[in-house]
Design goal:
It contains eleven helices and nine strands. A six-stranded parallel β-sheet has the order 3-2-1-7-8-9, with helices on both faces. It has a three-stranded antiparallel β-sheet with strand order 5-4-6. The chain is an alpha/beta fold. Among the domains are: 147 residues, 3-Layer(aba) Sandwich (Rossmann fold), CATH 3.40.50; 33 residues, no CATH class. The longest helix is centred in the N-terminal third of the chain and has 22 residues. The two termini are 38 Å apart. The structure holds zinc ion. Zinc ion binds next to loops.
Length: 295
């Protein structure tokens, strides 16, 4: 949808920057501009997709869920590749991938932690409809595991136990000298380079670009994907390696892909849903026995 034009000066604006009066005018005009039945049609399609997904889940016994940034946006955590990416480029000409790399961390720790505090920590974020649904699935022994590229820890916060965090977790932080552990607030409330009582640098237990993934996490994740009868890939464009190649181990029956953008695995999908993951799972949760993981 193109950005609306402000009535007075014709410059594109974001709806969230409009005052209430202008915003209601904007909404009214957008609704008028849509073909009749647009909203109803859109919802109907998504409901059908949610029903199809619910049916696959109902028939599956060993589901693995592979999640990316699109699963966390519903909890207010932006995909740093799009939002912070633009910001970082404007600010100092560096991409987030460069800042979040091993070499940048060692060469420019102060700038690293400035960026990290601003863009990687969301202490108020809570699990959304997707996380809650997956917790129900695990309780009913239908979900074998969650393999995630996300570092926000929301799957564990929702209660899931079998979570393979390929890129680590911002909730775990440790002193690089004495290994003492610290909560994320320690980094958030510090300025400059966060230090342990012993003087060592405290770093988050996340995998930086240029660092290898944890071996035991990889082995567990690959084992679950290989043994799954259904693999649901959600909220990721499968652009980050080696994590993305894990999905190629899948040999089961149903490959479900839920993502707004195309992915390299689309041609292999048995169900391809181009919707927002959270909206879809909100619908799925509301389907009653049909979409309920209990059935
Ligand atoms: Zn220490």
């Amino acid at each position: 949808m193109p950005l609306p034009r402000a009535p007075d000066h014709g410059i594109p604006v974001r709806p969230d920057t409009l005052d209430t009066g202008t915003l209601s005018l904007y909404i009214q005009r957008e609704m008028n501009a849509r073909p009749e039945g647009w909203q109803a049609g859109e919802m109907l399609t998504m409901k059908k997709e949610a029903e199809q997904l619910g049916e696959i889940i109902r028939r599956s016994r060993r589901i693995v869920f592979f999640s990316g940034a699109g699963v966390s946006t519903g909890s207010g955590i932006p995909d740093f590749r799009s939002s912070a990416g633009l910001f970082a480029k404007e600010e100092n000409g560096l991409s987030p991938e460069m800042i979040l790399s091993r070499s940048f961390f060692y060469l420019h720790p102060e700038e690293f932690f400035d960026f990290y505090r601003k863009h990687m920590l969301y202490p108020d974020a809570v699990p959304n409809a997707v996380h809650r649904y997956l917790f129900e699935l695990e309780k009913r022994d239908k979900l074998r595991g969650i393999v995630t590229q996300n570092i926000d820890g929301l799957h564990k916060q929702a209660g899931n136990i079998r979570v393979y965090e390929l890129h680590g977790n911002v909730h775990e932080n440790y002193c690089m000298e004495c290994n003492a552990s610290y909560p994320p607030e320690k980094i958030l409330r510090s300025s400059g380079i966060p230090r342990c009582d012993c003087g060592g640098v405290i770093r988050p237990n996340i995998v930086l670009y240029g660092e290898p993934l944890e071996k035991y996490v990889c082995i567990g994740a690959r084992r679950e994907i290989t043994n799954a009868d259904t693999l649901i890939i959600a909220g990721t464009s499968l652009a980050v390696e080696p994590a993305a190649s894990f999905t190629e181990d899948f040999r089961g029956k149903n490959l479900v892909i839920i993502n707004r953008e195309p992915t390299p695995a689309d041609s292999r999908a048995s169900l391809l849903i181009r919707e927002d993951v959270t909206e879809l799972f909100q619908l799925l949760s509301g389907l009653g026995t049909e979409g309920s993981p209990a059935s």
